[in-house]
Design a protein that fits this description.
By secondary structure, this protein is mainly β. It folds into two domains: about 5-115, no CATH class; about 120-200, Immunoglobulins (Immunoglobulin-like, Sandwich). The chain contains no helices and 21 strands. It has strands spanning about 5, 10-15, 20-25, 35, 40-45, 45, 55-60, 65-70, 75-80, 80-85, 90-100, 105-115, 120-130, 130-135, 145, 150, 155-160, 165-170, 180-185, 190, 195-200. Strands 1, 2, 4, 5, 8 and 11 form a six-stranded mixed beta sheet that branches. Strands 15, 16, 19, 20 and 21 form a five-stranded antiparallel beta sheet that branches. It starts with a strand and ends with a strand. The mean pLDDT is about 85.
Length: about 200
């Protein structure tokens, strides 16, 4: 048996609430076809360069078997009998499709979660043959920058109070006595710490 998909003549959009509950229905399609619901639901997801993110958990319960589609930045549509949808990050449209012989009644429970990662933070710097930078959220991939210039960096593990250690060898050649430099940590190529001003004794 082949199925055709009916696109709604127009759509309504509903923004999902942080802790929301929506109730909806998709009419029964004609025999041998499926129907995409008129109402589509919008959720916004974000991800910044330091790892802060918002994401959604969406639970859909229906009294018929339904298909659920997600599309980034634009509504779900039907083109030549094919439902157009995709995944990604950004503004998501969510649609419910009914392929049964009865109207499909459903509920949508939406929950917003926040992932709060903080950027690298330098707590202390010392220079005794090599430059030792201690701080938090530096990670094994962290790179030390001296006045915005990346330096060969070695991860030195963690201290007893959970501070990460990054080491730049032969740093005395790069910082003269009484010279002041701005030290930053770059994590994952995009997330920089605030500068730590260091003056070599």
């Amino acid at each position: 048996m082949s199925w055709s998909i009916v696109d709604p003549p127009a759509i309504d959009t509903v923004g999902l609430a942080v802790h929301g509950l929506e109730i909806g229905s998709v009419p029964a399609p004609e025999s041998g076809s499926c129907r995409v619901g008129r109402t589509q639901y919008i959720a916004f997801a974000t991800l910044d360069s330091c790892g802060d993110a918002s994401f959604w958990a969406v639970f859909i319960n229906a009294d018929q078997n339904v298909n659920v589609y997600v599309r980034k930045d634009r509504p779900i549509t039907v083109e030549n009998g094919i439902v157009r949808y995709d995944r990604g990050t950004g503004k998501f449209f969510i649609a419910v499709e009914n392929c049964s012989f009865q109207p499909a009644n459903y509920t949508i429970l939406s929950l917003l979660a926040i992932a709060d990662a903080f950027p690298p933070f330098i707590a202390s710097v010392s220079l005794e043959g090599r430059l030792v930078v201690m701080g938090y959220s530096l990670t094994e991939r962290g790179i030390v920058l001296l006045d915005d210039q990346p330096q060969p960096t070695v991860y030195g593990g963690t201290t007893n109070d959970f501070r990460d250690i990054l080491i730049v060898k032969k740093a005395k050649r790069k910082i003269a006595r009484h010279q002041t430099v701005g030290i930053t940590i770059r994590r994952d190529d995009t997330c920089d710490s605030l500068p730590f001003i260091f003056t070599r004794p």
